[in-house]
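Risk register update: the risk of archive-format incompatibility is retired. Evidence:
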Amino acid sequence: MKAYTVAAAICVAFPYAGLSPAHADAISDFYKGRTVTALVGVSAGGEYDLKLRLVARHIGKHIPGRPTVIPQNMTGATGLVMANFLFNVAPQDGTFIGVIQNGLPTSQAVGVDGIKFDATRFQWIGSVAPTTETMVTWKTTGVTTIEQARQKEVIVGAVGSSGITLSFPVMLNDLAGTKFKMVLGYTGSGALDLAMERGEVSGRAGSWSSLKASKPNWVANKDINVLVHSGPKPADLPNVPSAVDVIRNSEDREVLDIVTVGDTLGHPFATGPGVPVERVVALRKAFVDMLSDPDFVKEATASNLEIDPVSAEALSGAVNRALGASAASKQRARKYFQ
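Archived output:
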């Protein structure tokens, strides 16, 4: 967790005003006695699921009317099924929210099949923190650096057939000359972690905070080697190069920006495009209030989850950048997505 206070960070990251008394009363009347369904598009065990359930346990008491918040997994196509549902099918009344896979805006930008949403029209609520993606190998591979990964093949697992666990290593193969051999189709981070421990695969891409939270023994026992990262540089990985360091061509870096825009998003919460604006404002304010709730902070800290808020405005900006990238760069990035 950052050294500065969460409250100070929130004041900077979420600068919008609260609700008028009349709106607050109407929203309280609407939510009182209702259930809010909080969706996640992957199976239990990974950081998306952990953060969804953490938020679901705490956000309800900060929404006017104090609705019951129920977490629900809606798996399929690495979060695509859930995102399509939230955008097109879920009631557009503020009773459904979801944590969106942060690679989906990139998937839309590069034209992946099956997307039935416009990420610029999701009404973003906020994110607990941005994400640092890493490429790691198991201790028995003998591959501890990117340079070694350029010389020796490593079998790497991926969740589903899309998303950052696939696109990041495939991009590194293309732009940094690594030799990662992909095995696709794992149902979630938990299944992929188990495959690593069983020796089915010897490497994976994934969020550094997720690995530390879900597999602290891997870090403590030095079971994994971190080859490269993208996004904010973790203080505990001072000698690990950034993807920008190993991908030096400026045109290649534009492609890198498209593929890794999800680092800014972290694990972003959103609601559907038709939800009334006053309820969206209430949900955003509830998210902000939750982030400084001592009970939330205590549980996040105990789970080794960082709090470094990303505002709805920042989420929208990152999404717009990905979708507004040049056609040439998006076409190049397209080949990293099945």
